[in-house]
Amino acid sequence: MKIAHLIRRDFLTVNPYSGINAIKNQVLEHLAVVVKDDEGVFYGVLTTDDIAHNPKTLIIDCLTIKELVDSELSVEDTIFKMDAAKTDVLPVGENGKFVGLVFKNELYKYISDYNLELENKIKARTKELEEAIATKDLMFSIIAHDLKSPFNAILGFTGLLKNKLRSLDLEKAEKLICGMNSQARNTYNLLEDLLTWARDNSNKIAYNPVFCNISVICNDVIDQINDTAKMKDIMINSFHSNEVYAFADKNMVEVILRNLIVNAIKFTENSGKIEIYSMPIGEFIEITVADNGIGINESIKSKLFKSDFNESSPGTANEKGSGLGLVICKRFVERHQGKIWIENKTEKGTTIKFTLPIYKEDVHKSYKTEAVKIEKSLR
CB within 10 Å: which end of the chain, N or C, has fewer? Predict the structure, then answer.
């Protein structure tokens, strides 16, 4: 690194023919003063060492530091020159003209700060690399373990259909097909989690917050996974205020709700119930997904949102999971500056809540105006 940006350009100037005694205190206060005549000609730099070891009475007779170092010189080479000249300060020139001073203590501080910054960067890069390796290992372990089971089940079902279709009655065939469908959905959900996790870790998921109607998004997600709930005869109720809107990334909100509702279905027994509702609280909308299922063990609640915790418990119908769903939810909620948590309940079931920023009323009005204008222009 060059010394150009470390030059101190604010300095005290004295005349070369001034008396030493008159400016001693100034030299001691500033550590070094620049010596120039009335016409601006540079003579050198007077330091505390000059006045301590030289009995001369005029400044011009005491000067030992006269040679300019170039501003393009490196920090290391400048320190080497200072050591050779046994001084802590040197005058700096640009195109042969004096421009300022450099001090050894400031050069050392720069090197120390630079090394610390470099060390922090190395630590950060090392951490990123370790996380990337851990993510890769996690994905491979999930692919090898969690995806293998549903594929084996699907292969088993299709094998039975292939070999015994002609001898099976309609009811047994229907059960096999329902089993295949269930396993295929589980496998699809696992793949969705893995792909979302991989894209998020490679920073390929864009964050684009827009005007969002939580009720509409929630109903769309319920429609997508309603067949899974029907297989366990689970009722899903959704309650949302039509007057409350979020400022959020629609795709991320869909992923959050899909994971939470699928989890609720997974851990709710047949003929159970799931409720999703939202309400405004200050600057945020608080969204709740509650079920009356088997609940969550207190000992693992604090671990569920951590990426290094990958113990996915089987559901009430032995459904498999990746263990990444809640981790993805946490990341996406935090992208919105929101929070997600599991609320303690004394009764049976699990309640998970998360917050999203609310859409401001004044912005909401302007959005409606724009929407009306666009609608009219399309007619």
Answer: C
Q: H helices within the chain, ranges in order? A: 20-30, 48-53, 59-62, 75-85, 104-145, 148-164, 170-201, 214-231, 250-266, 325-335, 361-378
Return the pLDDT at 76.
92
Are 290 and 339 in contact by the 8 Å Cβ rule? The answer is no
Give the per-residue pLDDT at 191: 76
Nearest to 26 by CA among 92, 18, 93: 18
Rg, C-alpha atoms of the chain: 36
Q: Kindly state whether residues 178 and 286 are assigned to the same domain.
A: no
Alpha-carbon distance of 339 to 151, in angstroms, equals 35
Q: Are 59 and 20 in contact (CB under 8 A)?
A: yes
Phi/psi of residue 331, nearest 5 degrees: -60, -45
Q: Is 124 domain-assigned?
A: no
Q: For position 378, what pLDDT does the model report?
A: 34
- Give the residues of the chain that fall short of pLDDT 70: 135, 137-150, 152-153, 186, 189, 193, 197-205, 307-323, 344-347, 361-379
